[in-house]
Amino acid sequence: MKDPKKSTRQSNRDDLLQSPKGMRDLIGEDFHLMQGFFEKAAEVALYYGFQPIETPILEKAELFNRGSGESSDVITKEMYTLKTKGGDHLALRPEGTPPVMRAYFEHGMQAWPQPVMFYSFGPVFRHDNPQKGRYRQFYQFNLEVLGTKKSIADAMIIMLVYTILKESGLKDINLQVNSIGDSECRNTYRRELTTYYKKHLKDICPDCRERLKTNPLRLLDCKNPLCQPIKDSAPESVASLCPACKTHFKELLEYLESMNIPYEINSNLVRGLDYYTRTVFEIVTTKKAGDLTDQSPALALAGGGRYDGLAKILSGKKEVSAVGAGIGVDRVLMQPDYAKLTPRIIKKPKVFFIQLSQDAKQKSFEVIEALRKVKIPLAQSLSKDSLSIQLALAEKLGVPFVIILGQKEALENPGIIRNMDNRSQETVKIDKLADYLKKNV
User: Quick one: which of 381, 378, 431 has its CA closest to 401?
Assistant: First the structure.
C-alpha cells in the first residue's frame, strides 16, 4: 500500500520543478525571437525620436489603483500585490503607462522640451485565466508621447505600431479606431448608454450588471456572447462628441488617410482602462480564430489611445496631455507570418573549435578571445575530448571551417585549420589564426 504522505511530498517536489501557472521559461530560440522583435521595434522608435525608458517591475499598488481605475478588471481581479517587511503595498506592474507618468513627474520632465517621447520593453503581470496567447507574465513593447494634445501625436503612435507590425512580417492586420470623448462630452454619452442598457437589464451578463453601476463605458468591453446583440445596437460614442473632440477625431482620420493606413471605426471600442480619453485604437489580426488561437476571431495584437486625464488622477492637480500604445509581443510572435527576426547579437558560427588535450584546453581561451576581437563567431564543446565527436558536432552545425588544437599544436604553437567543404587542411600559427580566418571566412 502506498504511503499517502510520501506521495504528497513527491507531488510537492514535482510541482516545485514546474514554472508558475501562466508563466514560462524563454530558452534559446524563443529568447532570440523576443529579442529580435524588440530590436526591430526599438529601431523604428529611435528613428522617430523616441528615447528608451525602463521603469521598475514593482511599483506602489496605489499607482495602478488610481491610474488604471479601481473598477477595471486589472485592479479588481488581475493584479499581483504584496506587502513588504516595511509595510509598503507594492504591485507587479500590470501595465506600463502609469509608471511612465510617475517617472515624468518624479524626474521633472515638465521642464523638458515637450513632448517627451519614450519607448520601453519588458514583462507585465496579470493574474488572468491563462489561454493560448495569454500568459500571466507576458511581454509588451510600449510607446508613450507626453506633453501634447495635438492629434498628430495620436497618428504618429498608430503609424509606428502599424509600421513595426508590418516590418515584422505581419500581413493580415486591421486597425480599429474610435473616440470616446473627453470629460466634457463623455458624461452625456455615459447617460445615454446607461439608459439604453437599463432597458435590457435582464438580457445581459452579471458582470455587465455590475459595470452598469460602476463604469458604464466598460459595458462595451464585454466579450460574453450573451451581451453581443445588446452591445451591437448600443448608442455610439462619436454621436455624442463635443466640437473639440469631433475636430480632434476628424484630424486623426485625415492623418491616417494621408499615410495610407486603412482603418475602420469600431463604435464598441473603449479599451479596458479608466484613464483613456478621446482616441482609442486596436490593431487586430484578420485571421479566423481556428487558424491561430481559441480566442476571438479578431485577436488584438496592439492597442492604446489618449490619456489626457491620467496625470491629474495621479498628481491631484497637474494636467499632462498624453497618448500611448502597447504591443503584445507574445501574440505577435505566435503569428504564422511573423518574420522571426534575429537579434544583431546572434551570429551564425563560422568556425568550430576543437581541443584535444589539457594543454590545448588551457590555450583555448587565447584562441577564442583572438577570434572574438575580429568578430568571428565560433562554436565549441570544451567538455568533449574525442575528435570524431567534435567533428560530428561541426558537421551538424554546418560551419565552413574547423580549428583543431591538440597536444602537439598547443606546445609548438601551430593550429590546424580544416576546410569542411573540401576537407583540405592547413597549418597556421595560433597568433595568425584570426588573420587567416578573417581573410578566408
Answer: 378
DSSP-derived 3-state class of residue 348: coil
How many angstroms from the chain centroid is the CA of residue 24? 15
Which range of 135-139, 189-193, 291-295 scores highest in mean pLDDT? It is: 135-139
**Strands (DSSP E) along 294-390, which ranges?**
300-306, 322-328, 351-355, 378-380
Q: Is 81 exposed, middle or buried (0-12, 13-18, 19+ CB in 10 A)?
A: middle
CA distances from 280 to 140, 147, 296 (A): 18, 18, 19
- Helix (H), strand (E), coil (C) string for 127-182: CCCCECCECCEEEEEEEEEECCCCHHHHHHHHHHHHHHHHHCCCCCEEEEEEECCC
**pLDDT tens, 53-82?**
999 999 999 998 886 655 555 555 688 999
**Could you say which DSSP state residue 24 is in?**
-
Q: Phi and psi dihedrals of 379, rounded to 5?
A: -120, 155
In this predicted model, what pLDDT tens digit does every residue of 288-317 receive, in sequence order? Answer: 544 444 444 578 899 999 999 899 888 887
What is the length of the chain? 441
| 362-to-406, 414, 434, 437 alpha-carbon distances in Å | 11, 15, 18, 21
d(CA 124, CA 138): 6
pLDDT single digits (tens) 80-132: 999 999 999 999 999 999 999 999 999 999 999 999 999 999 999 988 777 77
**Residue at 42: amino acid letter:** A
What is each CA distance from 376 to 394, 396, 433, in whole angstroms? 16, 19, 11
Helix runs in 323-357, H state only: 329-333
Grid cell, residue 198, equals 437599463
Cis omega (within 30 of 0) for bond into 115? yes
